[in-house]
Amino acid sequence: MTAPDAPSNDLPPKIHRKPMEERWEVQYKAGIEKQQRRQREQDEKREQAQRAQTQIQICYYAEEDEDPQLVQEQGLPHLPQFNPSLHPRLLHKLDLTADDEVYIYDHDSGLWSRRDVNSTFLVVSGQTLILRSLNVRSSHCQRLDQMITIYAPTTATSRSLKRKAEPQRPMADGHPRRDMALAFGNINKKTKGTGVQQRFEAEFPGVAYVKQTFYRQLQFWNNSTQAERDAALTVPRNEAGMWTNWRSGLSGYKAFNTKAKVKKEKR
Fold first, then answer.
1. pTM of the full predicted structure?
2. What would the CATH number be for the domain defined by 56-150?
């Protein structure tokens, strides 16, 4: 008597469906391809939107008496922090290295700040930074005032502040223009937890804050050219350099008084 066969480990044969008709197979594959293409397009659209939402522009003065370069960099992964040294393509376009220094324009103070390329700035997407080479003098930056106006960041309007008692002495009395220039810059900078009046009193101890007087002086300063503002930092602290003696030559001062004269004549 023969021994029974051992159980088989073979799987039962697969039951195949009826082959898909050729025309239906073509339609099926076309549908899959269309779906995959739509997915690729959506992925590309999201990627491009992300790049557009994380970009900045550099307005860079590389040579004297020449228009600035406008260079855009997209897809910045670390916004709102931006460090130029981490972007080799950008440095190549600007002909800079991570070890270089540049001047960056500070819109709050109206002055230039000397910074390392390997510095981290706080920016917002779409912002334009104005930079110039250390070899380029501010007075030789073509259309600088136009660039400053075009690329000025949007700022919120500060709230009104109550007027204090009458000043012990006029705000502009006894201040050299270079000190006024630095003071305007510090007051313009928005410091968390402080208002304009507090920053004013810190810059001008013993001078009472009179809103109308302060903003009139600030208007003389802000509406002057960048070359005039830069020049304010180069004069000695003497009688000729006093703010009250020097401001009459400012284009912002002249424009203010011309406008005031026209308004008076129309009355």
1. 0.53
2. 2.40.240
